[in-house]
Design goal:
The protein has 109 residues and is an alpha+beta fold. Helix content is 16%, strand content 36%. The chain has a 5-stranded antiparallel beta sheet with strand order 2-1-5-4-3. The radius of gyration is 15 Å and the shape is globular.
Length: 109
């Protein structure tokens, strides 16, 4: 039985990039491709500094990383986290990048 799953991320406003455990990009949504060019099938390591590569290797062992950046007059939140395969093993990383307001409200609930 083949189950077709819609690409829920394809047209998201934010950039979504997914790599496997070897750092090979296996998915990019439209925003990610528009931002970085189509890098599917390529290694993400040449696009990063030595410090970032060390962080990526650490994330592939577990844990998540979140931070904000300012680039081209926009503030973005970056969230990087491992994804797991059907056996619960880390299969790679997923990175979300979304534009956020400079004066973004913060609520305590």
């Amino acid at each position: 039985i083949t189950i077709m799953i819609p690409d829920y991320f394809k047209h998201q406003e934010g950039s979504i990039t997914i790599c496997n455990k070897d750092g090979i990009i296996i998915y990019m949504n439209d925003k990610s491709i528009a931002t970085f060019g189509n890098k599917i099938g390529q290694s993400l390591f040449p696009c990063h500094s030595e410090k970032s590569i060390e962080k990526i290797h650490a994330l592939l062992q577990g844990g998540s990383n979140a931070y904000t950046i300012e680039k081209n007059g926009l503030k973005k939140i970056i969230y990087q986290t491992p994804w797991k395969d059907d056996n619960g093993e880390i299969g790679g990383l997923i990175e979300y990048s979304f534009v956020i307001p400079f004066d973004m409200p913060h609520h305590i609930r």
